[in-house]
Amino acid sequence: MSQVKTETIQQEKKIAKKVKPSHIIIHILLILLALICIVPFYIMIVYGTHTNADIASKFIILPGQALADNYQYMTENINIWRGFLNSFIIAGCSTALTLYFGALNAYGFAKYKFRGNKVLFWFVLATMMVPQQLGLVGTFRIMYMLNLLDTHLALILPAAANAFAVFFVKQFIDGTIPNEVIESARVDGAGEFKTFNRIILPMLAPALAALGIFAFIGSWNNFIGPLVLLFSNEKYPLPLLVQLLQGYYGTNYGVQYLGVALSVLPIIIVFAIFSKRIIGSVAIGAVKG
Amino acid sequence: MFSKTLQKDNYGYLFIAPFFIIFLVFGLYPILYSFYLSFTDWDGFTTPASVGLENYLRLFGDFFFWKTLFNTLAIWIVSVIPQLTVSLVLAVVLHEKFVKGKSIFRAVFFFPNIVTAASLGLLVALIFSWQAGSFNQFLMGLGIINDPVHWTDKPYFMRGLVSSILFWQYFGYSMIIYIAGLQGISRDLLEAAEIDGASKVRVFFSITLPLLKPIILFQVVTSIIGGMQIFDQPYTLTNGSGQPDNATLTSVMYLYDTAFTRYQYGYGSAIAFGLFIVIVIFSILSFTMMNMRTKNEQN
User: Fold this and answer.
1) pLDDT band at B1 (very low <50, low <70, confident <90, very high)
2) Residue B135 forms contact with A (CB below 8 Å)
3) Domains annotated on chain B, with CATH
4) Helices (H) then strands (E): counts for chain B
5) Any chain A CB within 8 A of the CB of B45?
6) A66 near A82, Cβ under 8 Å?
7) Is the dihedral of CA A208, A213, A219, A223 positive or negative?
8) What is the pLDDT of residues B28-60, one digit of tens each?
């Protein structure tokens, strides 16, 4: 057995040693494409450290020394850290609601055979196909009626009804949570909601982690929602502050680059740490979806 | 015993209730209210006045609406065709054993997808600006051009630029989904075909592609729904103007502009439903086209 293995390994080594020209070309093309993906982000970071005069005069490759000046100039009009905080509040709370109520709903559909279960579940699935912009004007109206315009709640509350979350978690429950778990909890005298909160919810952790990444990124990057529902600068999340940069600093390119860089850098850092998990959850979501 | 389980089963309603209450208030009601508004004239302050089908008749004859629809479709098609093909090729290549640094390539190609679209729009606007744009500086540095080019004045170029941003953002995402699909195809099957003498290209077209069909269809349909709603990138790229010559004004930008900067909520709602009808038609078309192909192949 081991002999067979070593033989195949040797064969593979032979194949690997014969470097085909086509393989080299493929690698060069891959590297080129990767460069195209990276260069704009590199430009963004480097240009944020230069004065407007530098930027207007030549193509720049290395970082400059105007970072502090650009930063100070930017903070005169734009409180980027406030934007971070707002984005965190909105995306964090939205994600928590999406996960908890998505799981609650999925559990209800997966483990209780009430009348209308199938029809209602299909209804939830169907809502996934409805484009968001369809209710844009109506959303504005209901937020006005509920006095929620220009509040973070207007962006957070609707996250409790995320159809994709229901679908995603139900698949996971169907595949991994046996009825025996629930029955034994009932025998022990636990109520239905206690069973869900104490026993089921922790078991859903892997699915919720993957889903949470999606939900957080989606909410963090949301642009048209806050554009329509928020009016005060101090309540704006990052994407809206980025858009404000254009208005305030139309011709000051260094400051605008710096603002964009500050909005993207955290994403780069988070992605550098969690890229495997993030990509993994995209793949899971797609295959199950 | 029986009645006991029945009682327990009714607990299900309690579990699904919060979701449905939120959905009715923030999901369904806004859509129904928008539908109602699309038959009214409403400035946001007075009571909506019923105007019957007037908004839809206006929409049908609104040259501007058709233009934004054309822009949206043009931007979508120019981005989605390379997106779905390049990503498929990349997925197949990155599935090959000989490629080095697979996970790095995967990560780099995917990364733009999670970056805020609004930030990407502004970044590209800065790079392609006239006087201080690094793209012009780069071309001048290489001696390709002598004077900076006014890229932002060129309608076709700017529309292409929006498509490019979308491609940049989504090809890596498509690639990840294709790779997930490829991992569902057994390697033994592909290797057996190669041992039987089929070339890589032949294996791709005869085995891989047909097996990936459900995933391709999934990607086409989701990209229609997403692509018809393009907003963030052209909005931030052009600072909300949709210029030059309204070439980058998409339908959702027109909807936003009509409802929220000119306060014509009724007509804005009609635009939303007009666009929805277009999305439904295209979704059905792509479904039937895919199904017809399958049937033809079976015959």
Assistant:
1) very low
2) no
3) 1-37 (no CATH), 53-298 (1.10.3720.10)
4) 14, 2
5) no
6) no
7) negative
8) 999 999 999 999 998 877 888 888 899 999 999
